[in-house]
Every structure is written in C-alpha cells, then in structure tokens.
Design goal:
The structure holds two protein chains of two kinds. By secondary structure, chain A is mostly helical. Chain A has helices spanning 2-28, 32-64, 72-94, 100-116, 132-167, 180-213, 221-241, 247-271. Chain B folds into four domains: 9-105, no CATH class; 114-160 and 447-484, 2-Layer Sandwich (TATA-Binding Protein), CATH 3.30.310; 187-284 and 418-435, no CATH class; 285-412, no CATH class. Chain B has helices spanning 9-20, 23-37, 39-42, 50-59, 61-69, 79-108, 131-144, 163-188, 426-445, 472-484; strands spanning 123-127, 148-152, 155-160, 190-197, 201-203, 211-214, 227-237, 244-254, 262-266, 272-274, 277-294, 299-304, 308-309, 316-322, 328-336, 339-342, 346-349, 358-366, 386-394, 399-401, 405-422, 449-455, 459-465. Classes of the chains: A mainly alpha, B alpha+beta. The structure holds protoporphyrin IX containing FE.
Amino acid sequence: MVLVTIAFFAYATEVAFSMKNNDDNDKTDFDFTRTTKSGRIGSIMMLLALFFLFGGVLFRGLSAQRVPWGNMYEFSITGAFAVTGAYIFGVIRYRLRWLGLPISFAVLLTLGTAVTVLYRPSAPLVPALKSTWLAIHVSAAIVSGGVFLLANAVAGTYLILDNIEKKGPRPTWALRLPTLEALDQLSYRLVAFVFPLWTFAVIAGAIWAESAWGRYWGWDPKETWAFITWVAYAAYLHARVTIGWRGRRAAWLCLFAGSTFLFNYVYVNIWGTGRHTYSGL
Amino acid sequence: MSDIPELSSVGVLRWIWRQLTSMRVALILLLLLGVAAIPGSIFPQRTQNPMKVQEFFTQNPGLAKWMDAIKLFDVYSSPWFSAIYLLLFISLVGCVLPRTFSHLKAVGAQPPLTPKFLDRMEFYATVNGNPAVALDKSEKWLKKNRFRIRREENSISAEKGYLRETGNLLFHLSLLLILVAVGVGSLFGSKGEAILNVGERFINTPTSYDTLSFGKFQSEGSLIPFSLKVTDFVATYDPATNAPTDYKLTVSASNPIGSKEETKIIKVNSPLTYASTKIYLQANGYSPVVAIHDKSGKLVFEGPVAFLPQDANLTSLGAIKVPDMSPQIGFVATFVPTAARDSKRGAFSAYPEALDPRLLVSVWAGNLGLDSGIPQSVYRIDTSKMTRIGLKSLGLNQTYNFGEGTITFEGVKSWVNLQIVDDPGKMYALLGAILAVLGLLISLFTRQRRIWIKIGDTVEIAGLAKNGMTGLKEEIDQLSKELKG
Ligand code: HEM
C-alpha cells in the first residue's frame, strides 16, 4: 500500500508539472516552437501518469485480491485513469493536446481528493458487490464517465471561445485551438461514441441489481440519476440529429447532461441514502 | 400559422396527434421525464424507505401533508410521472411505427433520383475524366464498395448505410418492448418476503409470507408450488473490518411440493430460480432461542424469536410476547452476538459473529395490547399499560427468575429474510435491453451517405453524409481518382 501511495504522489507531482508546462504554453508564451516543446513534455507526462495510474489501480486490485472498484477511493483512481486514457486517446486520434490544461487539472483534483479525503485501506468486498456484473457495470460506467467529461471539456471550450470570438479576434494563446465548428462536431462525436456504452452500463447495473436485490430497477437515487443522465444525453442526441441544434445550445445541453453524471458521482455517493451507498464510501 | 386547424373535433385530434409525434414535443417530453425523476431521488420514497417517509411526516407534518398530496413520496407511481412516460410512449409509437413501415418499403426500393443541382451538396467536385466511360467505371467501383445503385441515362444515384435506420428503429422499438415488459411485470407479477429461522420450512402459499403484494392481474393461485427448508446459514466476516464477506444459505427445496428434495445454495448474487420466480437472500439476523416457564413451572413458550439488527455488528433489538400468562408478560430485549461493554454505550456488540452471545431482557407485566385491533410490530412492545418488574443480562443457558416465572436463554439461531419475486416480464425487458444496445451500436456506427455521378460536358461528383459523419470525402476522392486513371 505504501508503494501505491508513493506512486500516487509521484504522478500527482508529474501531472502538476505537466499542468505548469501547459500553463506556460497556453497563457504567456508567444513563441510557438517553445510552447510546442513544453506542450510535448506535458503530453509525455500525461502518458507517464497513465502508466503510473494503471500501476496504482493494478496494485490496488492485487492488494485487495479483487477488481479494484469497491469504494469511492477506488472509483476515483480508476476514473482518473479512464480520463487520462481518454485524453491520451484523444491526443493521438483527434489532436486534442490543447485540452491538457483542463484535463490535467481535473485529474489532479480527482486524485487530490482521492488521496486525502477518500482514502481507505484495501478491504474485501461486501457480499452484494461480489459479482462479475460489478466488474462489467463499473468499468463500463467509468469509461463512459471519462469520455463524458472529455466531451464536457470540449463543449466548455466551445462556449469560452465562442464568447471570445464574439468580442473580437482570438488572443494569441487561443490561436492554435480548433475552430468552433470542429469543437462542436467533436463533442457530438464523443457523446455519440459512448452513449451505447453508457446504455450498456446502465443495463449491466440493472442485471446486477436483479441478481443481488431481486429487482432490476427500483428508482434508487443512484439508478435514478443514471437514468437522468441517460435521458439527458438521449435528448442531446435528438436535439442534434433530429432538430438540428448546433453551437451554443447544443454545448449547453451537453454540459447539462455531463453535470448530471458528475452530480450522481459526487452527491449521491457521498450524501445519498440508497442501496448504492456502502459503508465507508 | 398554417398549423392552426379548422375547429372540428377531428381536426383538433389530428392536430394533437401531430404535435405529440413531433420531434420537438418528443424532446420536451424526454427532458421532462428526466426532470420529473429528480424529486424521487431527493425525498424519501414509500416504496424504498417507508420509515424515512414516516420520519419526515413527524418532523414536518404540515409540509409533508402538502407534499404527499402531490405524490412527492410516490414519485414513480404518481399520475404526473406516469403521464409523462405514457405520452412519451405514445409519441414513440406514433413516431417509430410509420417510420418502420416506410423503412421496410425503402429497403426494397431504389435510391432516390439524382437531384438537378449537385453543386449544392456538401461535397462537390468536377473531374476531368472521360464522360463516356465514367458511369461504367463508377458503377463498377460503387458495386465493389456495395452501394445500392440507381443508374439512369446520364447519372448514377448511389446510397449506402441503410442499416443506420434499421438500427435506429430497432433501438426505438426495443425501448417500446422494455416499457411493455415493465408493465407486464408489474401487472402480472408478485413480490413477497418471509423471515425463516434455520430449520424452518416455507411453503409458497400466501399465508406463509410476512408481506406479499400481487400485480393487478395476478391471483393467489398462480404462485409456483414449491417448498423449501432452511438447512444451514453461514455468514463470514473480515476480522480486520468486521464487514461481511460472504453469506451462504443452504436449503433443501422441492418443486412442486412432494417431488424429490434437492439441496440448493442461495447467495446474495445468486438466487434460486424456478421459471419466472426467483428466491433471494435479502437480509439476515439472529433469533435467540428462549424457554419461558410460569410460576407453576409449566412451559408457556419455547423457540427462536427473530430480532432486528441495529448496527454492523448485529446488535439486535426484539420483543418476546407471552400473552398466555396472567398478568401478560413481555420482554423488551437486546441481543449482542459478541458482548462488550463501555461506559458510554453500555452493552454493545464487538463482532457480528455469535462468539459470546448475551441477551439483555427487561421484563414488563400488564396488558400487551394485542387485542386492540391495531397491528403491532413483532419487534416492539407497547409498554404504556405495563410496569417493569425485572432487568437482567443472560449468558448462554442461564435462567432468570422474574417472580412471575423464569426465562432461559437456550441458544441462538440465524434467521434469513427471503424475498420471493415473480416477474414474468423480466426476460422480455432483458431481451429489449440487448436489442436496444445492438440497435444503438448499429445506428451510431453506420455511416449513411449518398453519392451521385452525373455526366454532361464534364463529370460531376457529389456526396452527402447524414449527420456530417466523416469519411465521405475520402471515398469521393478515391472515386475521383478511379475515374481519372
Ligand atoms: C425514450 C425515449 C427515447 C430515447 C432514449 C431515444 C434515443 C435516441 C437515440 C440515442 C437516437 C440516435 C441519435 C443519433 O443517431 O445520433 C435517436 C434517434 C432518433 N429518435 Fe429517438 N429516442 C427516444 C424517443 C423518441 C421519440 C418519442 C421519437 C419520435 C417522436 C424519436 C425519434 C427519433 C428519430 C426520428 C431519430 C432519428 C435518427 C436519425 O435520423 O438518424 N425518438 N433516438
């Protein structure tokens, strides 16, 4: 466990470092060759962080002798891993390096709370959590969450840039960010890509609930909010595909849908009452 | 303003129908459904936590009454919630069924005619190839890439990706299936609970249940005729955290009653299944076994009494009622499986296993109030008409003489709470869910696009991708190259 904690701190510092670099990159520097370099360092740091995070999750699993998704600390480190992974994937596939600043900040925040507030020593699972469906359900939900957050970051960037462009030309630091249209498309594509996965995650959860609690759906707060997230994203897809919403309205709807997911994660896990709240977070 | 109908009733109905099946209304309904689900996650719900609702009522009686009037404690069965999803259901039917029919027709049909002005399309290019062979070449290339083709004198209209609509329809139809399945489950199902001590037998008839509710169209006679006997229950705990790690219930069951008994294991995540009926292990606790004699030494009560766990270490509360003595005697009791004591909490349990069991009884004499007609909790005693005549902490096999008689703490048994659910809609819901995901995958990952080639003085190529899916440009470039070469 000590080893894992050290690893966490190690990559947390690294992420911080990468963030600082991206900071320089984005805010103050005008010399693009230099910022490209620091940006690249940032990306490499994120890649390193990905490996350390993977190691952290793996060790946690080994030390607890099970899939490491039993409490909020474990969800958080796995979630951080998923977001970082989604980001790296984005960098390679869609040239998303410019998202490094908000993403690394979010990861840092998640890890910070995970290590300080949510940390619990590894322990075996309570019987209700012992199910293959747990592993399937939770991993699908975490990956969906990672991509939803990424889509939110893109939609948020869209809104910020849109505001800036309304006032005049882009400042230097924003020159190299994608066009508004590309951002708009990208957030849609990300959502359309994970919506089936999220649907599957909800269904896997229902199957698990059926085998553990005798009903596949019971409007438990966690289930309710998963449903709300699902409905919100379905509405988002409809708004885009069938009514043709674009731009600001679509971005706001996307942010709203994403915030229902976050709300579920933070609020329901910590202050909620339903059956999804297991002892010790 | 052309939408305003003539004021005949048919016209109004038609107008309502058109509104209801419009995408905008569907979107509003969808968002409404999400919003309407929120209060149920904030306020306690009767179906999940009736105790919490009661608590709310005692704390804010005025507010609670008002909230109850608009069903805020039964959100998911409230008229307004039902109204939203029924409207959505109708909207879905009205939207998807016509589309299904037109899609079925479209599958057999040719792609639409080539439009007159291709240069309005998203992708448009003129290629300086040879118009004479361009159509043949294009046709070959398009066929190779499995487009459907409509060839005319001087143009080709090609389309690919019909599966997208198929997937989309499959998805929406599956949602309908799920909704129907949920309805079937609640109309034809049953759900009940029964508490059994180890060693006891359960026969699946309504009288065996502690609580039982039926769907509207389900009758008592349709319960599956099984019986089971609880032969063993083992709970294992993690010594470091006291958290449970495993519950294992062994039963010998026969279905139908009278057939050969088979030994079955029931665990939290693996219920016992008979057709659409499932038997779940829901909860467990301890039943202290006591024997009570009256003053003359006659045995008036003997057996296990189920106690209700209060904390993670299974400190349990219970009541033993002996109405056959005079005066009537009641024991308000606390059971601790592993006894410990400190100054703040008094007696408490240090570990959930029964390592050092103790039974703390306070003895009350008087009127138990059992004939008042008001149903009473089996775990509580109304001591308002009673007086306390004794207090004692009993170890295993100890006897306490409280004047009116004696009580002996003879042992401990485990009890299990079985939940028995019959949901005939479940399989269809699962089927619907699987088809829905399948449909989604098909529709979201199929690219639907059209390509047109037109010859005149030059060769024109144009394309249109639904939802701005990427990849069409590359395809058109490839085709152009083909035509040039
Ligand atoms: C329970 C509620 C519903 C959910 C969860 C849902 C979900 C979806 C999803 C995920 C898509 C795919 C979007 C895409 O292709 O990117 C879609 C498409 C669509 N939905 Fe729904 N839907 C629902 C209700 C409805 C209703 C009530 C209607 C009709 C009034 C409708 C009509 C359509 C149409 C026309 C499309 C078009 C897709 C296309 O053109 O490719 N949906 N829906």
